[in-house]
Amino acid sequence: MKSKIKRAIGLKYKAGDKKDAPKVISKGYGELAEAIINAAEEAGVLVHEDPYLSEVLATLDMGQEIPESLYFVIAELLAYSYVLQGEVPAGWEKHLPGMTHKV
């Protein structure tokens, strides 16, 4: 059985900045991927594992914005990460009663 090489791609998105899409800020394979994941977890950054999404993101260059075709899936992940942290993106308050708006 062939073992898969671990891959990690880090994205950065400035909440509230409607002009810019999330950008690739880190990427690596194998031991570097493990280091990226460990650093993210230590910093409290949500880590999402999706081999298909990472395959597409791995084709992007450092500093490159995600393509428009990924906006919806990345927006869902960002929104979900806010909820997991007990935060509510602006405009979501009526859909998530009892949660406090922090973003």
Automatic annotation (TrEMBL):
The keyword Magnesium does not apply. Required for formation of the rod structure in the basal body of the flagellar apparatus. Together with FliI and FliH, may constitute the export apparatus of flagellin. This is Flagellar biosynthetic protein FlhB. PANTHER family: FLAGELLAR BIOSYNTHETIC PROTEIN FLHB. Gene3D superfamilies: secretion proteins EscU (3.40.1690.10). Keywords: Bacterial flagellum protein export, Protein transport, Transport. It comes from the Bacteria. The keyword Protein biosynthesis does not apply. Belongs to the type III secretion exporter family. It comes from Alteromonas salexigens.
